[in-house]
Amino acid sequence: MENILDNVENPPLFLVEERVKTFKNWPFSDKDKCNVRNMAEAGFYSVATGDVDADAAKCFLCGKELDGWESCDDPWAEHKSHAAKCAFVQLGKREDELLLSEFLSVIKQYMINDKKRVAEFAKELIDERAKRAKQFNRHLGRK
């Protein structure tokens, strides 16, 4: 299993315990429905950068980012209502309930999504460099 995960940008985020660790200042307690454990089991990890966005969370697989959580929110239900096509949501199982084939399908989808994100980022960089080159050429009087 380790070799498969070598090509993944953030392999620890596949594991619920690693997602739990990202919730440093989660605003809700373990007694609330919207607690750290339930968030992590529903595929979320914290992307908070401070107190203002302390409840910002993102799915490790589909990348859906949500904030504005309330203590009574059900993380699975919210994930499903905002990202019904997420492969993790469609499985509807916690990590410890996944069959190996299901876990591998999640990894495969993550890798596909990751490659798309990398390609989009590369395209943006290339487009920006091309724009700067055109501006530079115009500045030099070239066409």
UniProtKB/TrEMBL annotation:
SMART domains: BIR
Gene Ontology molecular-function annotations: metal ion binding
Pfam families according to UniProt: BIR
Zinc as UniProt keyword: yes
SUPFAM superfamilies: Inhibitor of apoptosis (IAP) repeat
Transmembrane parts of this sequence: none
InterPro entries noted in UniProt: Baculoviral_IAP (IPR051190), BIR_rpt (IPR001370)
Keyword field: Metal-binding, Zinc
Protein name per its UniProtKB record: Jg25725 protein
Species of provenance: Pararge aegeria aegeria
